[in-house]
From TrEMBL, chain A:
<keyword id="KW-0812">Transmembrane</keyword>
<keyword id="KW-0813">Transport</keyword>
<feature type="domain" description="ABC transmembrane type-1">
    <location>
        <begin position="91"/>
        <end position="282"/>
    </location>
</feature>
<feature type="region of interest" description="Disordered">
    <location>
        <begin position="1"/>
        <end position="25"/>
    </location>
</feature>
<keyword id="KW-1003">Cell membrane</keyword>
<comment type="similarity">
    <text>Belongs to the binding-protein-dependent transport system permease family.</text>
</comment>
<dbReference type="InterPro" id="IPR050901">
    <property type="entry name" value="BP-dep_ABC_trans_perm"/>
</dbReference>
<protein>
    <submittedName>
        <fullName>Multiple sugar transport system permease protein</fullName>
    </submittedName>
</protein>
<keyword id="KW-0762">Sugar transport</keyword>
UniProtKB/TrEMBL annotation, chain B:
<feature type="signal peptide">
    <location>
        <begin position="1"/>
        <end position="19"/>
    </location>
</feature>
<keyword id="KW-0762">Sugar transport</keyword>
<dbReference type="Pfam" id="PF01547">
    <property type="entry name" value="SBP_bac_1"/>
</dbReference>
<keyword id="KW-0472">Membrane</keyword>
<dbReference type="InterPro" id="IPR006059">
    <property type="entry name" value="SBP"/>
</dbReference>
<keyword id="KW-0732">Signal</keyword>
<keyword id="KW-0813">Transport</keyword>
<keyword id="KW-0564">Palmitate</keyword>
<keyword id="KW-0449">Lipoprotein</keyword>
C-alpha cells in the first residue's frame, strides 16, 4: 500500500475529456456535419413510428388491400370494432375504471405516502419491506384468491370490483413512490407553518400538497394507464359482455383460426388515443415528477 | 394507515350494492349463461342468431351470451371452476376437455343424448374421439363440429404448371419443387416452423407412415423410422421450395403469405376457409393430407368442438336443452355452413350447402370413409402441450436449420411422451 503511494507518479495521459468536448461542439457547429446527429435521430424516430404507421394503415385500408399509402380511406374496421365487437361499452368501462383507479390511487397513496415519510411508527420498516415484496407476486397468482373473495363480496361482474382489484395491485408501488416524493420536500416549511398556527392538516394542504403536484401527476397518470391496459383481471372477474374492457375487446379480433387485422388495428388506434392524449398533456409534469427524487432540493 | 384502511373498507362497502344480482326474476323465467370459447366478430353474430331462434322457441329461457377470447379461454374456465362461478353451458374443445373433467366441472351427457332426438345422429368418429379424451370413457361434451388438417392449394398455379394436385407425399414433394420460382418470389410450399408447428408435423408424419396407433405397448410410436423419413423430407424442402422466414412462421404469418399470393400449397385446417377464400376466391381448393408408401389413410384428428353442461349449473335441464338445440340438425347446419367445418349431426349431410362447399364435402368423405384410420394424439396427458410445444418446437427449428437429425428429434419427443403416458396410466 505504502509502496504504491510513495511511488513517483507515472506518466499520466492527458485528461481525455477536453478533446472530446471540443470535437462534439465542432460537429454541432459545422453545418455539413449536422447529419451525424440527425441521421441517427431520424432512424430512431422511424423505428418507433413505423409500427404506429402500420397500425393506422391497417385500420383505414379495406380488407385485402396491400397499399402502403391507404387511399381511399375506409372506416369499416372502426365500424366493426365499435358496433360489432362492442367497443362503445368497452371504452366506457375502461374510462370509468381508469378514472376510479386514478382517484383512489392518488388520494390513498398521497395520504399513505405522507404518513410513511413523516411519522415514525412501530413496524415501519417491515411495512415498507412488505410493500416492496408485494411487487414480486405476479397478478396471475392472486387471481383465484381474489376471485373467491370478490365472489363472497358480490363484486364479480362489476366495475367497482375491477377498480378495487386494480387499486390494490397498484397501491404498494404508488405508496413507495409517493413517500419518496414527500421525503424530498423539506419538513422545515411545514414546521414553520405549524409554528405560525396551522394545524398539521392545514399545513399539509397549504404547504406540502402544492409542492407535490408533479408527483400527483406522475402517480395519477401511471395509475390511469395501468388500469387502462389491465387485461387479466378484467377478463377473469367479469363474466358479462357489458363489463369487459378495451384490452379484452382487442383480443376478440384474434380468433382461433383467423385474425382480423383491420379490426385489430382499428381497436389498437381506439385504445391508444387516450393514452397518447394523457401523455401529451402531462408529459411536462411527468419528467419533473420522475426526476424529483434525483436531486436533493 | 388507519385512514387508508377505513377508506378502502368504506369504498368497498359503499359500492358492494352495485354488485351482481342477475338470477332470474319471479316470473318463472330461467336465465342460463353460455360461454362461447372463441368469441369475436366472426362467430358471435352466428350465435346471436341461434340464441334468438332458441329464445323464441323457448320463451321461458333466457340465454346470456358471453364471448371469451380463444387464447384465454382455458384460464378463464380454470378461474371460474376454482371460484365456483362456472357458466351453465360452455363451448369446449377436446384439447382442454380432460383438464375440465379432471376438476369434476362437467356433467356427463350420455344419458341425455341417448334419451333425446340426438340419439344415433352424431358422427361416430367424433363421438369416439371425445370419448377417448375423457378419463372414464363417458361423454362430457356433445360434439358439434370437427376440423380437419388439409392442404390448401392454388388451383391456378397447378393448372399453369400442368400438374395434378398431389395424392401421395412423393407427388407432393415434386409439386412443391416444381411450383417454386424464387426469382419471381413464388414458393411451392410454406412450412410452419414457429408456434404450433409440431402438431402439424405429427399429423403429416402419421399420414405418411400409416402407423395406426399413437402408442404400441405403452411406447410412443412417434419415432417410427417412417415418421422420421417424412420429417426429413419436409426439412429438405426448407429454403428450396419454401421461404427462408418459414422457420419462425406461426399460422398467422403462414396464412398471410398464402393469401398474399406467394405460396402454392399450405398445410392448415378447414378453419382458415374464410380467410383463404376471401383473399383468393375460387383460385383455392383443399385436398386431404397425401398418403405415404403404405397407401393407408391415417388421420390425427384435430380437437373436436362441442358444448358441455357444467355440473354446478342450477338449471341443468335448461342448459341441456340449449346444448341440444345448438347441435340439432337445423342449428348445426346453420353453424357449420357459416364457419365451414364438418357438421357433427349426420342429418346435415343432406343439406344443400354441403354440395357447394367442396372442402367440407371432401373432409366429410375422409371422416366417413371406413378405410380411414383415426390416430388420436394423447391430448389428455397433462404434459402434452408442454412436450409438443415448449420442449419440441425449438428442437424442430433446429431440424429445419440442419442442426439436429429428424430421427434424434423424434426420439427425444417420443421418450417424453412414453414417460408421460406411463405416469398417467399409473395414476388412473
Amino acid at each position: 500500500m505504502t509502496e504504491t503511494l510513495t511511488r513517483p507518479p507515472v506518466n499520466t495521459p492527458p485528461p481525455p475529456r477536453k478533446p472530446t468536448k471540443r470535437r462534439r461542439r465542432a460537429v454541432a457547429e459545422e453545418p455539413g456535419k449536422r447529419w451525424l446527429i440527425h441521421v441517427p435521430l431520424v432512424v430512431y424516430l422511424l423505428f418507433t413510428l413505423i409500427p404506429f404507421y402500420w397500425m393506422i394503415v391497417f385500420a383505414v385500408r379495406p380488407t385485402g388491400s396491400t397499399q402502403l399509402v391507404p387511399w381511399p380511406i375506409t372506416l369499416e374496421h372502426f365500424d366493426t370494432v365499435w358496433n360489432d365487437i362492442g367497443f362503445g361499452i368497452f371504452f366506457y368501462n375502461s374510462v370509468m375504471i381508469g378514472l376510479g383507479v386514478l382517484v383512489f390511487v392518488t388520494i390513498l397513496s398521497t395520504m399513505g405516502g405522507y404518513a410513511l415519510a413523516r411519522f415514525k411508527f412501530r413496524g415501519q420498516r417491515v411495512f415498507l419491506l412488505a410493500l416492496l415484496c408485494t411487487q414480486f407476486i405476479p397478478g396471475a397468482m392472486m387471481l383465484i384468491p381474489l376471485f373467491v373473495i370478490f365472489k363472497g363480496a358480490g363484486l364479480l361482474n362489476s366495475l367497482t370490483g375491477l377498480v378495487i382489484a386494480e387499486v390494490a395491485f397498484q397501491l404498494p408501488l404508488a405508496l413507495i413512490l409517493m413517500s419518496g416524493f414527500v421525503r424530498n420536500i423539506s419538513y422545515e416549511l411545514e414546521e414553520a407553518a405549524m409554528v405560525d398556527g396551522c394545524s398539521r392538516m392545514r399545513a399539509f394542504f397549504a404547504v406540502t400538497l402544492p409542492q407535490l403536484k408533479p408527483a400527483l401527476v406522475a402517480v395519477g397518470s401511471f395509475a390511469f394507464i395501468g388500469a387502462w391496459n389491465q387485461f387479466l383481471f378484467a377478463l377473469m372477474f367479469a363474466s358479462r359482455q357489458d363489463k369487459f374492457t378495451l384490452p379484452v375487446g382487442l383480443s376478440y379480433a384474434l380468433g382461433e383460426f383467423n385474425t382480423d387485422f383491420g379490426a385489430l388495428a382499428a381497436g389498437g388506434v381506439v385504445a391508444a388515443v387516450p393514452v397518447v392524449l394523457v401523455f401529451a398533456v402531462v408529459q411536462r409534469f411527468l419528467v419533473q415528477g420522475l426526476s424529483a427524487g434525483a436531486v436533493k432540493g | 394507515m388507519r385512514r387508508l384502511l377505513v377508506a378502502v373498507a368504506a369504498a368497498a362497502l359503499a359500492l358492494t350494492a352495485c354488485g351482481s344480482g342477475e338470477t332470474g326474476g319471479g316470473d318463472g323465467k330461467v336465465t342460463i349463461t353460455f360461454w362461447d370459447n372463441n368469441g369475436g366478430p366472426a362467430r358471435t353474430p352466428i350465435y346471436e342468431e341461434l340464441i334468438k331462434r332458441f329464445e323464441s322457441a323457448n320463451p321461458n329461457i333466457h340465454v346470456e351470451y358471453v364471448g371469451i377470447p380463444s387464447a384465454s379461454v382455458q384460464q378463464k374456465y380454470d378461474t371460474a371452476i376454482a371460484g365456483g362461478e362456472t357458466p351453465d353451458v360452455g363451448g369446449v374443445t377436446t384439447s382442454y376437455l380432460a383438464h375440465l373433467v379432471g376438476q369434476e366441472a362437467l356433467a356427463p351427457v350420455d344419458d341425455r343424448i341417448n334419451s333425446g332426438p340426438l340419439k344415433d345422429k352424431l358422427l361416430p368418429s367424433l363421438v369416439e374421439t371425445v370419448r377417448q379424451t375423457g378419463p372414464d370413457g363417458k361423454l362430457y361434451l356433445v360434439p358439434s363440429s370437427a376440423n380437419m388438417d388439409v392442404i390448401w392449394y392454388r388451383t391456378d398455379w397447378f393448372k399453369d404448371a400442368g400438374i395434378e394436385p398431389p395424392k401421395t407425399w412423393d407427388e407432393f414433394i415434386t409439386a412443391a419443387t416444381k411450383l417454386t420460382d424464387t426469382a419471381a418470389n413464388k414458393y411451392g410450399y410454406t412450412i410452419r416452423g414457429g408456434a404450433g408447428s409440431v402438431f402439424q408435423l405429427i399429423t403429416e408424419a402419421y399420414a405418411y407412415s400409416g402407423v395406426d396407433n399413437f402408442y404400441e405397448g405403452g411406447q410412443s410410436t412417434l419415432n417410427d423410422s417412417a415418421n422420421a423419413e417424412l420429417v426429413d423430407k419436409i426439412a429438405k424442402l426448407y429454403k428450396k421450395a419454401t421461404p427462408e422466414a418459414d422457420v419462425n412462421n406461426s399460422f398467422t404469418q403462414m396464412i398471410a403469405q398464402f393469401t398474399g399470393g406467394s405460396i402454392g400449397m399450405m398445410h392448415h385446417n378447414l378453419g382458415s376457409y374464410s380467410d383463404v377464400t376471401k383473399a383468393l376466391g375460387d383460385k383455392v381448393a383443399a385436398i386431404p393430407l397425401p398418403v405415404g408408401p403404405s397407401g393407408k389413410r391415417t388421420v390425427v384428428p384435430n380437437p373436436t368442438d362441442g358444448f358441455a353442461v357444467f355440473k354446478n349449473s342450477e338449471n341443468q335441464d335448461a342448459a341441456w336443452k340449449f346444448a341440444e338445440f345448438l347441435t340439432s340438425s337445423e342449428s348445426n347446419s346453420y353453424w357449420n355452413e357459416k364457419v365451414g367445418q364438418i357438421p357433427a349431426n349426420t342429418d346435415v349431410r343432406s343439406a344443400a350447402w354441403i354440395d357447394k362447399a367442396a372442402h367440407v364435402k371432401m373432409a366429410l368423405g375422409v371422416m366417413e370413409d371406413p378405410a380411414t384410420i383415426l390416430v388420436p394424439a394423447p391430448v389428455y396427458l397433462p404434459q402434452y402441450s408442454s412436450i409438443t410445444k415448449t420442449d419440441s418446437e425449438p428442437q424442430y427449428q433446429k431440424v429445419l436449420l440442419g442442426e439436429l437429425s429428424a430421427q434424434q428429434f423424434l426420439d427425444d419427443m417420443a421418450k417424453k411422451l412414453t414417460e408421460a403416458q406411463k405416469e398417467w396410466e399409473e395414476r388412473k
